[in-house]
Design goal:
This protein is α+β, with helices and mostly antiparallel strands. The chain has 2 domains: about 1-70, no CATH class; about 85-200, Four Helix Bundle (Hemerythrin (Met), subunit A). A 5-stranded antiparallel β-sheet has the order 1-2-3-4-5, with no helix packed on it. About 25% of the residues are buried. It is about 45% helix and about 15% strand. α1 runs antiparallel to α5, α2 runs parallel beside α5 and α4 (about 140-160) packs antiparallel against α5 (about 170-200). The chain starts with a strand and ends with a helix.
């Protein structure tokens, strides 16, 4: 099984080293060996400088339910995104992967509020007022402002039990929308700056 190792950040082949009631003298565990119930397996990174372990929960038909630690969130921080906002966004992905959809949208709302504060909104203000502040400054306008309001609304749903239930589709949508705002505010200006610098030197 090829994954990005959560320890060494290399793309590696993970080999099984422990699985109940099965002899691990193989490279891969065939899905058809486990037709019923849930199986668990410990796998080891084949990078000689790492050799650390991950734990996989899978279903009886070969599908993976969960991996710990989560390899998909071992990536290095993307240049240009402030630390607090990056940490919040990575946590939204972890929450989504373990199907905690209320927590996913709440973390998206938190990331959005950190963005407003980073861009000069008052910490003491409500998120609604903070978003208005960014709109007035021209930082988010038009459809991006509408998207930000939607993140706030669904994030409130996740935080308050009397609100509408947050389902998987809602959580995925809000997570994707949050990334679009991060990309627009922090990463797009970096890409444009690099293009301009490159053109000036050619």
């Amino acid at each position: 099984m090829v994954l990005k190792c959560p320890y060494c950040n290399s793309i590696c082949n993970f080999k099984p080293v422990w699985c109940p009631n099965y002899t691990l003298d193989i490279v891969e565990i065939p899905p058809n060996k486990f037709r019923n119930g849930v199986w668990n397996v410990v796998m080891q990174c084949d990078n000689v400088s790492c050799r650390k372990y991950i734990f996989i929960f899978a279903d009886g038909m070969g599908g993976i339910n969960a991996i710990f630690p989560l390899p998909s969130y071992a990536q290095e921080k993307i240049e240009g995104v402030p630390d607090d906002i990056w940490i919040d966004y990575i946590e939204t992905g972890k929450c989504f992967d373990i199907k905690t959809y209320n927590a996913t949208v709440v973390m998206c709302r938190r990331a959005l509020q950190n963005i407003t504060i980073d861009k000069g909104a008052k910490k003491s203000d409500d998120l609604y007022i903070q978003l208005e502040d960014l709109k007035n400054k021209g930082i988010i306008q038009g459809i991006l402002y509408d998207v930000a309001k939607h993140i706030r609304t669904v994030g409130n749903d996740g935080a308050h039990p009397e609100k509408s239930k947050v389902i998987e589709d809602d959580a995925k949508e809000i997570k994707d929308f949050t990334w679009q705002i991060i990309d627009y505010i922090y990463l797009l200006p970096c890409r444009i700056s690099k293009i301009q610098t490159r053109k000036q030197t050619t």
